[in-house]
Amino acid sequence: RQLQTGQISELFDPALLELDPESSEWEEFLLAVKVALLCTVLDPLDRPSMAEVVLLLEGCRVGPDMPSSDPASQTSPV
To answer: Domain limits at 26?
Structure first.
């Protein structure tokens, strides 16, 4: 719920979050959190495969249109 309302920083120890919210490091942190949440979806069939996780963490988009098929069929941004 905090992720959906933009209050994700409330989930973590403030000492761990000394990153500038405008920095690329913050964006990478949020990406990792979003991917972690995708990996905890109740239905295992709705979770990303490890190949998809790798693609997501390499900078592919995280969102409702996350690849759900074979990641080899997906194109990555150049």
So the answer is: 2-63
pLDDT at 44: 94
Q: What is the dihedral of CA 29, 34, 39, 42, to 10 degrees?
A: 140
Instruction: Give me the average pLDDT of each 10-residue run along the chain (78 residues).
Output: 60 67 78 89 94 86 47 45
39 backbone dihedrals φ, ψ, rounded to 5°: -75, -10
Number of domains in the chain: 1
Report DSSP letters for 51-76, one per residue: HHHHHHHTT---STT---S-GGGSPP
- Is residue 46 a contact partner of residue 52, using CB atoms and an 8 Å limit? no
Q: Is residue 25 part of a domain?
A: yes
What pLDDT is recorded for position 4? Answer: 56
